[in-house]
Structures are given as structure tokens and as C-alpha cells.
Amino acid sequence: AIVTNGGGPGVLAADWVNEIGLQLGKLSAESAQKLQPHLPALASLTDLIDLSEEAEPAHYKAAIEAAAADRQIDGVLAIFSPKPGADAAAVARVLADIPRPMSKPLLSCWMGDATVGPAREVLSEATIPTFRTPEAAVGAFGNIASFYENQLMLQQTPPPLSALAKPDIEGARLMIESVLAERRKVLTEMESKTLLSAFHIPITRTLLARSANEAMMIATQLGFPVALKIDSPDISHKSDVEGVALDVMNGAGARDTYTDMMERVARLAPDARINGVTVQKMARARRGREIYIGLVTDEPFGPVIVFGAGGTMIELLDDRAMELPPLNQFLARRLIERSRVAETLGEWRGAPAADMEALEQVLLRVSEMVCELPELREMDINPIIVDASGAVAVDARIVIGHMNSQATGPHGISYNHLAILPYPARYRREWSLPGGAGGSSGVAGGVYTVRPVHPDDAQMLQNLVQHLSPESRWFRYVSHFRELPASMLSRFTLIDYDREMALVAVIRERTVDTAGLATETERIVGVSRYITNPDQTSCEFSLVVADDFSGKGLGSRLMESIIDAARDKGLAEIEGLVLAENAEMLKLIKRLGFAVKRFADDPGFRLVTLTL
Q1: What is the pLDDT of residues 492-524, one digit of tens each?
Q2: What are phi and psi of 432, to 5 degrees?
Q3: Fold category of 155-202+287-420 in CATH
Q4: Most buried residue, 114, 360, 370, 458, by most Cβ within 10 Å?
Q5: DSSP letters along 114-180, please?
Q6: Considering the domain 205-282 in this protein, what is its CATH number?
Q7: Is the dihedral of CA 177, 179, 184, 186 positive or negative?
Q8: What separation in angstroms does the CA of 293 have from each of 202, 244, 367, 398?
Q9: Which pLDDT tens digit goes with each residue over 554-610?
Q10: Which CATH number fits domain 2-154: 3.20.20.30, 3.90.1110.10, 3.40.50.300, 3.40.50.261?
Q11: Which pLDDT does position 410 carry in this prediction?
């Protein structure tokens, strides 16, 4: 929200808000109605909160408090323009006296030079950022928004597969292997659509005709109008050789179109191998939008998913938003929003809004394909017709290549072809708690879950550390701090699952309040971790278990799980340093087969190692 006593500076700020892609905060009707009686008669609340030239310190105070309390507003910019009789320092003191910290960012812009110098000093002493121009102040809000966006992106840990119907990965790989065995790299339209179908991406029903009579019969069975397209592994863009015919309305037309197309393509591409002509019913979507979803392979980053406007004018429009896989629903929605075609997906020129969820699901399925099929090199699904009832892929072109040796690990696919590894959900396990749970709170179901850490586990991890006994905290961190510093907390939870792995043991605790209502909350009761050493063949481990769950088998389970993860990574040895006085930990690792010896650099530690 922009609070100003001058319309000109306010408009400059609002224009820059629009220029850098932010949204001007406007008071709700209820907030504006409550605020209006406390402002000068000439004040306007339509877009800006323009207090008029008669603005006094009390008016600024009322406006800023109203904006801070309004749910539609995420931050406040106060602009002051010097006016005859106006006290710049008094208005600044009003801002300084607002209880801090505010729940929303408060920035200021005191325009002028010598006349507002004392006011700027007041604002600086109150640690309120102040700027000399409206554009600079709005730019600071842009930096805040970018930082927030980046933090949201950092916290995304998408799984390799969605929670929807499981795709036929084995069938898809067998088809790719058969194409590569024929020493081909470009899939035909039929093969490409088969691959899409294996991952449950909706496609138009497509049948291959090998003669003019077959084309006529298939078209009649599918129902008119139909589209005919040349099917050849040597032709990437069918329209370049006039290999596409749309809106064929009857059987005779299908037969004649087949004959004409085969002759035309043979003349324009004499060396191309022709399988026949595909026949498919025309995708008739009511006011449907044509969308493009593709895949390109970049040398440093690997596969990149592309989204934008589709159809025959795709190169001319050049609408390409990109995202690194794997995607989750948040990332898929942000990818759509970054494209120019996104503006047409809502209610547009009388057309109902497109089914955004269906479009997001197609992106998630494409992300699954990219994660599970490292042989994919290029993919063009163009167009995808999307309307209010769903999305359907009309045409597809896929290029494959032999898999990089680094794309597989000793236990199958390891997703090393991706720049960002997906969340390793395969390490999630549920175990029963032997002998019940410790503490006074009951554990729901008597089970605990061991899973890789999430970025949003930070607060639960902090709670675990805060409730450790001083002895346990010393044994794990060799420190007497009572909580993890913010930098360490983010480093422990924002990991790449490649060089480092962290597994947490999570329970669900059931509590009953005085009214008899039961609630369940999650709690981390143990963490095991390994970090790969610079030699890339060994790793260092750590382990911590909540005091009230010590002796219940969690430590053994967490250590066994992290050892298995290190083996999956192909590491040869796992090692760690254990305080010599930590008898329970030394007893546990001896039971797991670790060798224990004195640590030469510090006699207070023992070096423990296990060959994997």
C-alpha cells in the first residue's frame, strides 16, 4: 500500500510497482470505510491512500495502522512530500513511534534534501529504511518479494512420482530400448503417444493406416471430422512436407487425402521411411487454448521442462517459460504463471476458464517422464488443447539417446541425469515402537516413521535440540548451545540428497484437551546423517536421539537406514568421531560392526569406521 500526501510521487511509485511486476495494495472496502472519517476531506482511498496536502502526522498514523491491519496488504510505503507548514520530522516521529516490529514491512520515502534531513535521521534511528525517490523504495519491496519467492523455491522438495495412478515405467523403457535397438533416435507419432499414455497423459485416439482403404475405414469408425498426419521416423516436422491434413469430413475425403499425402511426401522427402498415415478424430474443444509443453537438454543442467503457447505459430510467439525438474504442484503452477499464455487461461473473451488443475497434472506427468526416463533428449507436445473440461495432447515428437553411465547407480536409476535430485521417498519406512513410547504423551498407532528430512522440518529439528539434555547435546554437537543457530538449522534441513543424506524418525503424538478433544502433532525424535567426504568414496555420519526415546531401538534403526543409504550411493566406507566418554554410542556402533580405534589428533575421541 502506498500512503502519500502528494498525488504525483504516489503515481510514480504506483507506476514502478506495475513496472517491476508487483501488485498495488488496496484497502478493502471495510478498512476504507473505517479509515475515511479519520482523514482530511480531500483524501482519496480509491487506489493509493492519498492523504492530500492537508495531511498531518495523525493522518499518517491512522492510514499506516489501517494498512497494516488489512489482509489484502503485505507491506506499506509511506511517502512524504514537503508542503508549506508541514513538519517532516513530526511525521517521521509518528512512523518511529509505531510499535515494532510490525507484522509487515514498512518503508519510507521522504522527498527533498535539506528540509527533510532531520526527518531522515529520525527514521534511521528507528531502523525504518528510507529512500530519496519513490522508485528506489518500490525497488526495495521488489527485492523483498524476490527474496521471499526464492525462499519458497528453496523449500520445494518434489517427489520423483506423483500420488496419482502409477505409470507403466517398465513398458515405457522397453519401448525406448526397442527403438534404440533399431538405431533410431526420433520416435514416430504413434510411439510418442504410446510413451505419453504410459504416464497417463491424455491423448487423442490415434490409429495407423497403411493404405487408402484403411484410412477410409478408420476415419469412418472414429467419426468425422478427422485429421491425417504422415507417420515417419525421418520427418520431425510434418507440416514442412505438407504431411498434415485437418478437418477431413467423409470417408472418400480420407481415402483421397491419404493418396495425395503419400505422393506429396514421397516427392518432397524422397529418402524418408514412411510407415503410413495416422488418423485421429479432431480435438474439438469449446474455446480451447493451444499449449506447448516440451523438454530440452542443456549441457550443464541436464533436462529442462519448457511451457508456453502452442500451435503452428510457436516459433513466432516465442513464449517459453522454463523450470528444472522434478516438479511438484507449486512449481508447476509457478511455471504456468511465468508464461505469456497464462493470461489467456482464465476467463478470456467469453471463454470459460481453462482447467488449470488438468494442465498442472500434465506438467507433473511430464516431470515423471523426465525423472524416470534418462534416455529422453527432446520432447515437443504441441499442441495440448486445454479448456474448461480438461487437457488433451494432440501431437507429440520425442527424441531419445543412449543413457549416460552416470544416470544409473548400483541399485538402479539414481536420477544423476537431473540437476536437482528428487525427494528420495524410497527411504521412507514405518516401524513399530518396541515396548511403547517414552514420555507422557501417547504415540499414535505405536509406530514411528523414518524418512528423509524436509526443509520444513526446521522447527521440529530445533525443538529436538532444545529438549535434549546437556549431556546428549554435548555428545552430539560437542557444544553447550541450547539451540541450533539459524545458519546451521537451514544447512541441516536444506540438503541436496546427493552429497548428503539426513533421515529423521518422526512420531505422531496424541493429546487430549480438557474438553476431551484429541489432536495429533508430529515430532522428530531422532536424526541420522551422512556427508560425503571430498574423496567421494567415504562419508562421515552423525546420530542423535531424543532422551525420552533412548534405548527403544531408534538409534539402531536410524544407523542401519543411513548405512543402507550410503551403500545405495555407492560409497565404500562410513566413518565418524565419537567422544570417548559416550559409552552408549560406542556400544551401539560396535554392535553394528564398526571398528573402533583412538583418534590420533585428539585422545578425547574415537575414530569408528565400517566398510560398506
Answers
A1: 888 888 889 999 999 988 877 777 777 788 899
A2: -85, 145
A3: D-amino Acid Aminotransferase; Chain A, domain 1 (3.30.470)
A4: 370
A5: GGGHHHHHHHHHTT--EESSHHHHHHHHHHHHHHHHHHHHHT----SS-SSSPP-HHHHHHHHHHHH
A6: 3.30.1490.20
A7: negative
A8: 13, 20, 11, 12
A9: 999 999 999 999 999 899 999 999 999 999 999 999 999 999 999 988 888 999 999
A10: 3.40.50.261
A11: 43
Residue pointed to by grid coordinates 532531520: 118
pLDDT higher than 70, residue 532: yes
Residue 201 phi/psi, 5° resolution? -85, 125
Confidence of residue 441 (pLDDT cuts 50, 70, 90): very low
Number of H helices, E strands in the chain: 18, 25
Beta bridge partners of 538: 573
Round to whole Å and give the CA distance between 571 and 577. 18
Residue type, 166: K
Q: What is the mean pLDDT of residues 541-551?
A: 91
Q: What are phi and psi of 120, to 5 degrees?
A: -65, -35
pLDDT higher than threshold 70 for residue 445: no
Domain 425-611, architecture per CATH: 3-Layer(aba) Sandwich (3.40)
Burial 246-255 (b: 16+ CB within 10 A, else e): eebeebebbb
User: CB atoms < 10 A from the CB of 23, how many?
Assistant: 10
Q: Which residues contact 434 (CB under 8 A, 6 or more apart)?
A: 552, 553
How many whole angstroms separate alpha carbon 97 and alpha carbon 74? 20
Whether the pLDDT of residue 285 is over 70: the answer is: no
Run of H or E including 66 = helix 57-69
| Residue 54 pLDDT exceeds 80 | yes
Segments making up each domain of the chain, as ranges: 2-154, 155-202+287-420, 205-282, 425-611
Alpha-carbon separation of residue 150 from 20, 147, 156 (angstroms): 16, 5, 10
Pairing of strands 538-545, 573-579: parallel
| Contact in structure between 385 and 283 (CB atoms under 8 Å) | yes
Which residue has 537406514 as its cell numbers?
561
What is the grid cell recorded at 601?
Answer: 589428533
Q: Alpha carbon 385 to chain centroid distance?
A: 24
CA-to-CA distance for 166 and 315, rounded, in angstroms?
34
* Burial (CB count within 10 angstroms: exposed 0-12, middle 13-18, buried 19+), residue 309: buried
